[in-house]
Structures are given as structure tokens and as C-alpha cells.
TrEMBL record:
Name the record gives this protein: Tripartite tricarboxylate transporter family receptor
Native source species: Achromobacter kerstersii
Listed SUPFAM superfamilies: Periplasmic binding protein-like II (SSF53850)
Region forming the signal peptide: 1-22
Database matches in InterPro entries: BUG, Bug_dom1
Family: Belongs to the UPF0065 (bug) family.
Key words of the record: Signal
A matching Pfam family: TctC
Amino acid sequence: MNKRSFLAAACTMITTAGLPLAGAQAQGTYPDKPIRVIMPWAAGGPTDVVGRVVAVQMGEILGQPLVIETRAGASGTIGAAQVARAPADGYTLLMNPSVQGIYPAQFKNLSFDPIKDFRMVGVLGTVPMVAVVPPTSKFKTFADLIQHARAQPGTLTFASPGVATLPHLAGELINTSTKASISHVGYRGSSPALTDVAGGHVDLMYAPLAPALPLIQSGKVVPLAVTTKTRLADLPNVPTIAETVLPDFDIVTWYGMWVPKDTPEPIIAKLNKAMVEASKSSKVVEALKSQGTLPSTMGYQEAEAFNIAESARWIKVMKDANIQPE
């Protein structure tokens, strides 16, 4: 090899060797500017409230603010699509509820893949649901209600905040799992649905804890069972569905954080570490409690597996219930 060739080869080796180091250094200094967090739902909603309190605390831990940007519309898919197309550098994040994994069964045409085009940073928090009935209901236990629904199919109704929401899908899963037949009545949100349950116009609702708890405490609705595997601290005398009719039953709604699929793993790990640390702060715990939300400490790999399993479960429920994509 002549001198010129040797020098050219040496320069190439030095340049190539420097590339991973430069990448590592970039990740090591992350974040060195504010991080955008796309919120694909209207400001003031539960995802927004939970997301903001966690984001503020994460920003303090990371040393750079997480700036919430609202991109609402089309059941969250407008904002999700924006993040799917964003640079995979850790500076554009998505906060979305568990509906993220249900999009393939909700919509015929999506411009992104809700699973393959993203990586999970973590679960922000989980939301228990509680089966509530009107105070005038003749059913005193959840087992009695299910027994009636089996014996007299179609005579009972259950409310939800809307088609393909988790409270709706939880009801469909319970129907198929117990061979009960309780007809679904969809509303535009939890509040009107709970109002009609309280008024006796609907027989049952699998309601998120936050909006249901004040009505339970005031006696406007009566809790029969909770959807989590263990009893809730707020409702210690209310049995679980697992205790009554379906052993091992454990259902929650949840909120998560995602990044574009090619985001470097060290960045995802750093974001997850900040999220878990934030979830342990008393400020976040109290804020989440006010929203009926329990903090999560899942690692990013655990959250990824959880998301995939949840997506598969609920897509199957939608197919079994013959819920057609739009």
C-alpha cells in the first residue's frame, strides 16, 4: 500500500470509528432542548390532565421542559400520525390513552401503524373501573345481575362513554366471557352515561373510577364490583369481578407515552426512568389520585409488551362483538 492509499484508509477508519461515538455523545447530552409532547385530545380532558402533571415533573427531572401541544381530532389519530412521521430523536413524544392499540379495529384506513410505527416509553397511569347500578336496582350483587342477564337475554342494558371505549369493550368482554346478554347504549362521554344510570334509564355501567366515585359517595349510584384483580383502597368493601364471576379478571383503562419507532434505546430508557421517578413523587401521586388514576412503574420493555397484549385482547373483543371499523 502506498503512502497516499494508507492515509486515505486511515482517515476512513477514523471517521467511521467516530460515528458511534458521536451518536453516543448526542444521546448522552439528551435532552439539550425542550421536548414536544403531542396531546391528541382536547385540553382539559383526562388524558390532558394526567399527561400535564406527569410531563411537568419529568421536565424537572430531565432538566428540559416537556411542552404540551394539543393536536385533537379523529379520536386522537391526527396527533398520533404527526408523531409517527416525526424525527426519531426523542424530541417529539405522544401521550395517548389505551385507545392507541385499538385503532386498527376502529378505522379501516390509517396513515400509520399504531404498534409498528411507535415504541413505548411507558405507562403514565392506570384507571380502575367500577360496575355501578341505579340506587333503585333490584340487583345487590354482580353475580345476581349476570345470572339474570343469562336467564333473560337482552332485558338489561349497559352504558358507556361511546363505541369502542374501554368501558364499552369491558362490557362486551364480560358478556362473551360469562355468556350473558346485556345490550350496549353509547353516550358522548362518561358524565351523561352516569347521569342516565343514576336516573334508572340504564341498568349498568362499567365506569372509570374518577367520575363514578363522587356519585357512589353521594348514593346516586351503587357499586357492585370493580374490574381490577384486587380491591380498591377507595372502595374496600366492594368485591372484584374476579371474586364474583370471572376468576383472574383484571381490566383497567390506561394512559401511555410513545416515541417514533427508530428512537434510540438509550433515549427511551432515559425518558422511562424520568417517568417512573416522576410517578413516585407525592405531587404526581396526589394529582393522579384526583383523576382516579394509579401511578405506574413499568419499565419501557414491560410497557411495550403490555401494550401489544392489550391491543391484541381488545381487537379480538371488537371482532367477537362484531364492532365494525369506520
